[in-house]
Specification:
It is a single chain. The chain is an alpha/beta fold and 720 residues long. It has 27 helices and 17 strands. The strands form four sheets. The protein has a seven-stranded mixed sheet, with helices on both faces. Strands 1-4-3-2 form a four-stranded mixed sheet. It starts with 13 loop residues before the first helix and ends with a helix.
């Protein structure tokens, strides 16, 4: 597409805005005005997280950019602004930063509309999902203004594990351990938070400025480490104003303050504008230091350790959810005839489902972040596309059962015979900006192949924290992949927040066939995490993340299916997860009514109900007499109702009237409906006598009634 020469007038002038900003930061006393801004914008109470308007505040990246410009020259600590000048600086900064953001946003939209118009003029089909990255500005907007990608505590937990294999080298070459660097980062944050929470009275505006400077500054006396160790760490993570960022002029330029977030002040103190950036740097910078100091150690040793860590942390995270017996690392996929084979970094098995995880340690480089579309596509190919293609090959063999799966110890892994789906998840080591958006922009896949999920290891950790139950986690993955081309979000945490609050679902017969999830739902997760980590019990109760709907009987019903151990019931559980709270309440209510009727009149009672999208349904049978064959009636009645409803999936359940269980037996089928007049006639007869015991002999070669997907003769027939 040719570059459009004219930019509409409403779009702010980027060059003029940046020139004004570069002059503004060197105004007398601006340094203190900037500290006042970040004290207001970045320090929040627990009650602020869910409701705060982040668009009206400076982000971490914007603060780093402003300070990055400021430290191009030495900082004059003795020059203070007047209250009036400080307020003018603050309001002008907000407006200029808004103009800069608006420029990138407007130009991105302009380029998108321009490409759409050109396709229309050429008589070409306009895609349902137009390319999101078709200009440098669209890349910069998504990357620079995107989310931070992790929480500081995740970096603190990750760093010692990430560099465990490199610890001897780091200790020898740098003189400190990664754990020491983590402690310094934590101490610096605590010191700043304690000072800013202090109630202080100021007699003059200058005293106020000195107090705000003290809130963001620390000395080695504030740290738990020895002074020599602290100074060694600070040297690797600090900058001296006037000696850095000579080329920094716009948000997409290299900013040394991101990897060296501590600013050395002229009075001997250290300034930490954004404590989060120090936590991030402790986790990421040592890798770059290795390359700077000893290239021969960096490649191949450090690179191998980095890849191993990505695989190991993915394995450990999923093991916490699915259990040690269901998660395998370093799986070789060997063709039975000794032909081609591939590898699976982490394999998860649960019932008739599998998760194939391919872990990559490729980072997005600076050229991509600066808006180079070709480089961005190359980075995506190495970080996601190649891993996805490897996952597709493995998936094909796993589902076809034409290969031997062997774990890292040489043990043979045998998935259940009913295995009918394998999901692909690609994990990246570091925060990979705008990964969800890039997936839709750059992924190349065959029409019949599924989308993957692509997440960094920190998002995977958050998913595992909130989806602790393996079936909950698996259902979320199922919905994310199944609806990947219909539900869009800028972040994975936004999708998770929506799922926990509303349920990740799109009615195929509903009014809308696409949905965009806003950042508000990611904000609900932020709020809940902060309350869990830093709030008291009463604070945790104020979380707005979860849907308040509860039905203990429905929960018990689902738990009984989970505990059955029947592989095919994974799909039955998914069916129950997909229904609305109103339908779930109605299902439980009808079960209770049927049980009461059976107790009162001593007769068998049945009912049927469709699911919300009418593609499937439920039947229920209640029998008063335990001498009668409940399971056979459940199976036959479910079969008949499925035929009559022309449904593709059906869950039949039943219980005895005096049972303490919600269900005593169940059957599930997801066989696609096909026309069959004889079966339809039989189904009508069964429905007409639904309160009576009617049997239908199951053919030995038919799918087993338990929902396993295996032929009856190889499943429950043998168990009998």
């Amino acid at each position: 597409m040719k570059k459009r020469k004219k930019i509409p007038k409403p779009i702010p002038d980027l060059k003029a805005s940046l020139e004004k900003l570069n002059k503004l930061v060197y105004s007398p006393g601006y340094f203190y005005a900037l500290l006042i801004m970040i004290a207001h914008d970045l320090f929040l109470t627990l009650d602020d997280f869910a409701e705060v308007d982040w668009w009206s505040r400076l982000s971490y990246q914007e603060v780093a950019f402003l300070f990055g410009l400021l430290i191009k020259r030495p900082i004059e600590l003795s020059v203070y602004p007047s209250p009036e000048n400080a307020e003018t600086y603050i309001q002008t900064t907000y407006q200029l930063m808004k103009d800069i953001h608006d420029y990138y946003g407007f130009v991105s939209i302009d380029a998108l509309l321009g490409e759409t118009l050109e396709l229309q003029k050429a008589g070409k089909e306009i895609p349902d999902s137009p390319p999101l990255f078709n200009s440098p500005e669209s890349i910069i907007e998504a990357v620079f203004y995107g989310d931070s990608g992790a929480y500081d505590f995740q970096y603190w937990e990750s760093a010692p594990k990430r560099y465990a294999a490199d610890n001897d080298w780091i200790q020898e070459k740098l003189g400190f351990s990664i754990s020491d660097a983590v402690h310094l980062s934590q101490d610096a944050k605590k010191s700043g938070e304690a000072r800013i929470k202090q109630k202080t009275q100021w007699k003059t505006y200058q005293e106020f400025c000195n107090w705000i400077l003290g809130a963001f500054s620390f000395s080695t006396l504030d740290l738990s480490l020895s002074e020599p160790t602290a100074k060694m760490i600070i040297d690797y993570f600090s900058v001296v104003p006037g000696k850095v960022n000579a080329e920094l002029a716009s948000p997409n330029d290299k900013n040394d303050l991101i990897i060296k977030p501590i600013i050395q002040l002229s009075d001997g103190r250290y300034l930490l504008p954004v404590s989060f950036h120090l936590a991030q740097a402790v986790d990421e910078r040592p890798f770059h230091i290795m390359k700077e100091i000893e290239a021969t150690y960096f490649d191949p040793t450090a690179l191998k350790h980095r890849g191993d860590y990505t695989e190991q942390i993915s394995f450990e995270t999923l093991k916490k959810v699915f259990g040690e017996k269901n998660v395998f690392r370093g799986v070789k996929v060997k063709r039975k005839k000794g032909a081609d084979h591939t590898d699976i970094d982490v394999l998860v098995l649960l019932g008739n489902k599998a998760i194939i995880v391919q872990a990559k340690s490729k980072k997005m480089n600076l050229i991509s972040r600066q808006g180079n579309l070709k480089q961005l596509a190359k980075d995506f190919k190495k970080a996601v596309q190649e891993a996805y293609e490897q996952g597709i090959i493995a998936r094909k063999h796993v589902l076809a059962r034409d290969a031997v799966l062997e774990d890292s110890s040489g043990n043979i892994i045998e998935p259940d015979e009913s295995l009918n789906e394998a999901y692909i998840i690609v994990t990246t080591t570091d925060n990979y900006p705008a990964l969800e958006l890039q997936l839709h922009a750059f992924l190349r896949k065959e029409p019949n192949n599924p989308f993957p999920m692509a997440v960094n290891i920190y998002d995977l950790d958050i998913l595992a924290t909130y989806l602790r139950d393996p079936y909950d986690f698996l259902y979320y993955v199922n919905q994310r992949i199944k609806l990947a081309d219909k539900i869009f979000s800028g972040t994975e945490i936004g999708c998770l927040g929506y799922h926990l609050n509303q349920r990740l679902y799109l009615d195929p017969k509903g009014r809308y066939d696409r949905m965009m999830i806003t950042d508000d739902f990611a904000q609900l997760v932020d709020d809940d995490i902060m309350r869990q980590r830093y709030g008291e019990t009463e604070q945790e109760k104020k979380s707005k993340l979860y849907n308040k709907w509860k039905n203990e009987s429905f929960k018990k019903l689902v738990e009984q299916l989970k505990s059955s151990g029947v592989p095919g019931f994974v799909d039955a559980i998914f069916l129950l997860f997909s229904i609305s709270s109103e339908t779930a309440d109605k299902l439980v209510e009808m079960i209770e009514i049927a049980k009461k009727k059976a107790i009162n009149d001593g007769k068998t009672h049945t009912f049927a109900m469709p699911v919300d999208n009418a593609s499937g349904g439920f039947t229920f049978v209640v029998k008063p007499n335990r001498l009668e064959d409940l399971f056979k009636h459940v199976q036959v009645y479910a079969y008949a109702r499925k035929r009559i409803s022309k449904a593709n999936e059906w869950l039949g359940m039943g219980c005895y009237a005096d049972s303490v269980n919600i269900i005593d037996c169940a059957t599930y089928s997801r066989d696609p409906w096909t026309p069959d007049p004889k079966d339809d006639e039989l189904a009508k007869k069964i429905i007409g006598k639904s309160g009576q015991q009617i049997s239908r002999k199951i053919g030995r070669n038919e799918p087993c009634y338990c929902g396993s997907g295996i032929k009856y003769k190889r499943c429950c027939y043998l168990k009998k």
